[in-house]
Amino acid sequence: MKNVLTLIETTDTSELGNTTAGLLGAASRIGNPVAVVAVAPGHGSALVGQLGALGATHVILAECEGTGSLLVAPELEALSAAARQVDPVAVIAANSVAGRDVAARFAVRAGAGLLADVVAVDTDGDAIVATHSVLGGDYTVKATITSGPAVITVRQGAIKDIAPAATPTSATVIVTPGSTAATILSTTLETTGSNRPELRGATRVVAGGRGLGSAENFILVDELADKLGAAVGASRAAVDAGYVEQGAQVGQTGVSVSPDLYIALGISGAIQHRAGMQTAKTIVAINSDASAPIFDVADFGVVGDVLTVVPQLISALGAQSDS
Ligand SMILES: Cc1cc2nc3c(=O)[nH]c(=O)nc-3n(C[C@H](O)[C@H](O)[C@H](O)COP(=O)(O)OP(=O)(O)OC[C@H]3O[C@@H](n4cnc5c(N)ncnc54)[C@H](O)[C@@H]3O)c2cc1C
Asked: Which overall architecture, per CATH, does domain 3-175 show?
């Protein structure tokens, strides 16, 4: 079977990133999932079994001085070294800020084609076919690379396939970052004061728009999100109005999400907003205007005032969890 090299992301505490299962699941649709992960020298052996449980049949631990303190250079060298070892038909990375960066640099280095922000992957004979959701999600485009390995970045949360668990073999390689690698001098953790999941990659998102009317009313979005264990998102209009911080913006110039459930509260559904959420599995919209475009993409819609409907929803969910 053909090897599909999967670049695994790790957290600040060197644990597997939350994109891991989806990336290995995507790889298993094409071929044999081989995981590569950049680690500090002497670290990472505990990850081998965890990666096997998520479907990796072979794990390459790329030991690199500066992992965690150098910007993407260790991951790029890890990918390059692993590719030389396993001759992959495809390379898969997350469509995160770092994943996109590494994938693009690797594609240039390898002279390979890049398919970015993919929402599904499959094969058609020998061809690897990637699906993109474009133009605000209104069109689905299938693309393939005709020569060399296909370098693919996968939109977080878009691919739900789970690869069968495996007992992986493993290898360690030692890589050296290039002399021009950028160094991270300091990191500041922005705390949101909540245990909400991160927006990118969240399985549930509750998003609010200008229809909330004020920052005070936007608390309803937070409350509903907390009832559902969801991340908080927003339209650009809500961000521009100062209801919520910019990191919550979903859409063309914000974050793209592909959750199982997306609840849009007081959001009209402009094409630039839909571009970031239309691939959600189930979309629920609450809007006072029955002709709002958000209802064109919603699976369930409530025509009503968010300030009336959302408190009722929160209290109904509360009653359900109490019973
Ligand atoms: C280049 C470019 C990039 C952009 N990028 C983005 C992006 O990334 N993300 C993004 O979101 N937008 C983006 N925009 C802006 C986008 O075009 C819209 O202006 C924006 O999405 C509108 O946000 P909204 O739906 O919250 O506000 P509005 O369009 O004002 O809609 C508010 C909605 O709330 C409803 N409403 C009002 N009161 C209530 C109530 N009490 N109860 C229930 N419903 C109510 C109204 O019926 C209306 O449908 C971009 C625009 C441009 C030009």
From this structure: 3-Layer(aba) Sandwich (3.40)
